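Sync notes, pocket subgroup
Present: LS, DG
LS reminded everyone that the earlier model was apo-only. Rerun requested with adenosine-5'-triphosphate included. Inputs:
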Amino acid sequence: MANVKVAVRVRPLSKRENAEGGRIIVEVDEKVAKVRNIKVDNRLEGPWDTREKIVAFGFDFCYWSVDPEDPKYASQEVVFQDLGTSVLSGAFKGYNICLFAYGQTGSGKTYTMMGTPASIGLTPRICEGLFSREDDYSEQPASCRIEVSFLEIYNERVRDLLKQSNQKKPYTLRVREHPEAGPYVQGLSQHLITDYKQVIGLLEEGIANRITAATHVHDASSRSHAIFTIQYTQAILENNLPSEIASKINLVDLAGSERADPSYCKDRITEGANINKSLVTLGIVISTLAQNSQMFSSCQSINSITSEGDNHVSSHSPGSVSGTRRQAYIPYRDSILTWLLKDSLGGNSKTIMIATISPASSSYNETMSTLRYASNAKNIINKPRVNEDANVKLIRELREEIDRLKTMLMSFELRNSSPSWSDDRDGNLTELVLQNEMKIEQLTKDWSDKWTDRKVIMEEYSVDINKEKAGVTIDSNLPHLMAVNDDILSTGVVLYHLREGTTKIGRCDSDQEQDIVLQGQWIERNHCIIDNKCGIVTLRPVQGAYCTVNGQEVTGACRLSQGGLVVLGKAHKFRFNHPAEAAILRQRRLISETSPILSSKSLEWLDLDGDFTPSPPYIFSPLEKESQKHIGHEECKHSAEMMSREIDAVHEEYKQKLRDQEAFHREHIQQQQLYVEDLKQQILAGQIKSERELEYDQALINQQIRENQQWLIDEKKRLASLQPQQREFAVQTESKSYAEAEVQNTVDLEICPSLVEQNRKRLVQLELLRRYSLKKAERNIRRKKVKFQLERIVKKQKLLEAKKNLEQLEASCWLSEDNLKQSQVLNQNTTITSWDYKLQRRSKSLGSSSLQHRRHSFCNLYPPHVPIYR
Ligand SMILES: Nc1ncnc2c1ncn2[C@@H]1O[C@H](COP(=O)(O)OP(=O)(O)OP(=O)(O)O)[C@@H](O)[C@H]1O
């Protein structure tokens, strides 16, 4: 519960007031504003006049801004330090805040709320505080988003001060009521701002659009109520859960409350009546709210007194007492102003009112009326609450409930003597605690999953929340469609990634699964297909489906280029973004300083089954078309010539690049040809050398074989001649043996046959040795043959590769020449990527490896750090 904070500010005497004598009747003493009662003051004092000479009003703040020399003087900074900082701290905590200035015409409302360039008022200072938040106001830094809107209510009609219609008659907006979010203005423009300068720009624009008129007190009196609304959303971590808190700050500069003067024209009378109507309604709302608040607080105090005396009464709710005196109806909807400020007045907002008054005696009546109004407002009690995320709030409430139940459990254990009753209760409570804990666990899991999913998406899309500037940058490396929504109430940003391959678009009741589901007028079940092949994106409408690209209806395959406006069906608008293409175009713009539109806004028509056909003449984007309407025929002609010259320049640059590329290729081909020749010579020489070596080895082996054979024959002959001699020797020794000793005989008999044996053995051994060396020699020859064959294979492979390279080089060189010729024919809309596509198609006949090579060599045209999409 919080009372509406009320401040009073007294402005300096105006020139007119000074001229009239400049009698000051207001005094400020700390938190009290005193007004001298001129009606009593002017008469002689007497016992019959009971009226107070001085009427005093107490407020939360009283500012004396009459004389800058006065030590009590309250400057704009002083007012901001009291009121502005409390608006900021409330917003940072997640409260809705409403600060409104109320007072007579020319009393200083606009000065206090907006200020002058030399003396900045509350609104710009509050905005500056939001941006330069050095976390004086909270312990935790947070990422935030700031959106503003600015409206005026004039003659009970709402106008957007930041979106003016071109028609003479200003259009008005409707006020509607959302069941949860409360009243809102349908179609009011919301502006995302990232720095203080932008706010100042918007404030200046809005103030300039405000309706003012000269009144008898003020030359530039604001005739309308102006509401500047700031939607401040913070992303925070609460209980380790990522969460958002949003607060709405309404800064209201009300119109001056002046009587409808019959001397004014009819319009002014109606205007005055309407201003009065809303201010009267505001007065009624404020006093009814004050009454209700007082009634509520008195009920509470009665309840607290009775509950002290009797415990049973404490069960009665305040409603039971107030049931006898029902809360008064609050006529919020009697005026647009009170309807829109419903939440700020007596709702869940923290409300601050600044009543501005003149110190002059001439404004006595208005000053008294303003101070009474302000006094009334002081009694309003609001119930401000933090606008926290619904899930986080639920988790917090459940945790509180668990704590409460656990305390109850403990107290039951301590208090109850009856075990059965206690067990029952304990059981129920334990179950409740368990249920709640499970709920928390589930909610935390759901919530965390949601955030994990978001994180995954954010990582994929490289979403970055810039903490310093409160801006959100969504960046994606893949080609994508970005939905462009006309509905002002639609706040989300939708990106559809176009991945490598096919993306199907159509209705949800289609027989095939759609990658992008669209509903609405003229959307077919199967509407269109978007192909992304190596970064080349083409849109193919299904027969009969309505698709346009950059305003032209598409019936066949159409290549999409960076920045193209794609409309599917009647109302689904998308902007096509190709980050890689955009990077190339940015680089080209940097290098050649040519207009990006030359290549970024073109339509490229492709006959996918046949040959590439050049693009139709340059197609203006809607923006350019619009600008063309406004410039004369001559200027149009001039700009067309300029454009044509720029196109020629781009072409010349492109042709030069192709020529350079061609020269490079030619040189490469020559080198490759020399290499092929060299390889061929090497292979031939190697072949001859190997054949000679083989022949020589073969001859050597044959010689060895022959020698071996000869040796064997000789050995056999020698052995044969040895056999008769051996037999003769054996007979002679046999006759001697009878005569000699037996022992001696046996020894000789052992020696004589062993000699023959030895010879035989030696012969066999030698033969084996010879055979072994022969086999070894044969093996050597075989090994050499294999080695030679392998070498020949390797060299042939090299030769083949070299020949292939040569072919590729020749083919790409042929393409370059071809491109050069084509580029001379094509005068418009030639983008590098279209050549790339052609290159890819032509290369199909040469196989994938050659394609890669040519893509690579072609990509050399791009600056080295530009990403190449494949
Ligand atoms: N505190 C102040 N210090 C100096 N000059 C002030 C102060 N308050 C108001 N003024 C001057 O008084 C004049 C009227 O002020 P302002 O336009 O703010 O009145 P207003 O209440 O917004 O009037 P209206 O309701 O008619 O728009 C301006 O010239 C303004 O500069």
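DG: The longest helix spans residues 633-739.
LS: The mean pLDDT is 71.
Action: DG to write up.
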